[in-house]
Amino acid sequence: MNPSNPANFQGKHALVLGVANERSIAWSIAKTLAGAGATVTLTYQGERIRAKVEELASSLPNGKALPCDVQDDQQMDELFEELRNDPDRKTIDALVHSVAFALKEELEGRFVLTSRKGFLLAHEISVYSLIALARRAETLMPHGASILTLSYLGAERAIPNYNVMGVAKAALEASVRYLAADLGPHRIRINAISAGPINTLAARGIRGFTEMLQYVREKAPLKRNVTQQEVADTALFLLSPLAGGITGEVLHVDAGFNIQGM
Ligand code: 0WD
């Protein structure tokens, strides 16, 4: 990439959370950042996906995978300590939070039946983790660093079966605004991409997901679904100085679906 291109990440470090496999949105973002020259660190949640994420990290130049379960404060502290002590990773120029979870039984049926446990778990993993990570990352972030998270239209509209995850995404988007206000004076930006439905591991947990894909294909202005790569390209833009004047924003990358009325 041309060294004078503002989206050049040569000499910069990106920390990317939320890769589970090749289909993960976070993986497309990681590859795109690496393609722009960034040194990328991936994280994995537990031994279940460790080998897969390590394999993906090793396919990136100077890529590395470290453990981080966002429910575990000690693991989060250890992650940032490890980065602090690594000369290639001791500053974080870009942080990607692509993490979400809800119990399968909460992603179907009546919203009114949401359990206390399911509500708290979805919010802890999908929302509080962004705040917990931003607080730790801030100490390693230079002026001009940028944070990105992934949201969905279910934050703004009642989408069948999205249920408690929609409420968590609304809290996530509000957290982006509060974090933007808080981190702005330190010259750190934070934004969200509200992505259209994409066939990933997490998405397949939502009942009726295939119908959702089809509905968007039929109704969205562009008459198709979006791809991981389109989300990743927008991520590169938002994380780069090209978006230097944008913070606290939620940008829809959804083939225009959200603007449609009847
Ligand atoms: O249609 C879609 N796929 C959309 C996804 C549309 C709009 C938004 N999103 C969002 C999701 O809500 C999520 O925030 O994008 C983000 C990434 O989701 P994805 O790429 O669709 O899904 P996936 O590849 O499953 O990655 C999410 C990962 C987890 O994967 P699994 O499937 O193993 O639960 O989040 C991670 C995990 O790797 N994750 C955790 N990471 C650390 N600690 C934890 C945890 N406790 N729990 C889940």
Structural description of this entry:
With 262 residues, the protein is an alpha/beta fold. The protein has one domain (13-255): Rossmann fold, CATH 3.40.50.720. Helix content is 38%, strand content 14%. The chain is built from seven helices and seven strands, in the order E-H-E-H-E-H-E-H-E-H-E-H-H-E. It has helices spanning 25-35, 50-58, 73-84, 116-138, 163-183, 209-219, 228-239, and strands spanning 13-17, 39-44, 64-67, 94-97, 146-151, 189-195, 250-253. The chain has a seven-stranded parallel sheet with strand order 3-2-1-4-5-6-7, with helices on both faces. Helix 1 crosses helix 7 (228-239), helix 3 (73-84) runs parallel beside helix 4 and helix 4 (116-138) packs parallel to helix 5 (163-183). The chain binds ligand 0WD. Ligand 0WD is lined by residues 18, 20, 23-26, 45, 49, 68-71, 98-101, 125, 150, 152, 195, 197-198, 200-203. Ligand 0WD binds at residues 18, 20, 23-26, 45, 49, 68-71, 98-101, 125, 150, 152, 195, 197-198, 200-203.
Give a brief description.
The chain is of the alpha/beta class and 262 residues long. It is built from 7 helices and 7 strands, in the order βαβαβαβαβαβααβ. It has a single domain (13-255), classed as NAD(P)-binding Rossmann-like Domain (Rossmann fold), CATH 3.40.50.
| Biggest β-sheet: strands ordered side by side in the sheet | 3-2-1-4-5-6-7
**SS-based class:** alpha/beta
Give me the count of strands.
7
Q: Tell me about the biggest sheet?
A: 7 strands, parallel
Bound molecules: ligand 0WD
What's the overall geometry? globular
The CATH C-level name is Alpha Beta
Q: What is the count of helical runs?
A: 7
CATH topology: Rossmann fold
CATH architecture: 3-Layer(aba) Sandwich
How are helices and strands ordered from N to C?
EHEHEHEHEHEHHE
Strand content: 5-15%
Distance between the termini: 43 Å
User: What is the total number of structural domains?
Assistant: 1
Using only CA atoms, what is the Rg?
18 Å
CATH homologous superfamily identity: NAD(P)-binding Rossmann-like Domain
Spans of at least 5 consecutive residues with low confidence: none
Task: Determine the fraction of residues in helical runs and give it as a percent range.
Answer: 25-40%
**Global mean pLDDT:** 96
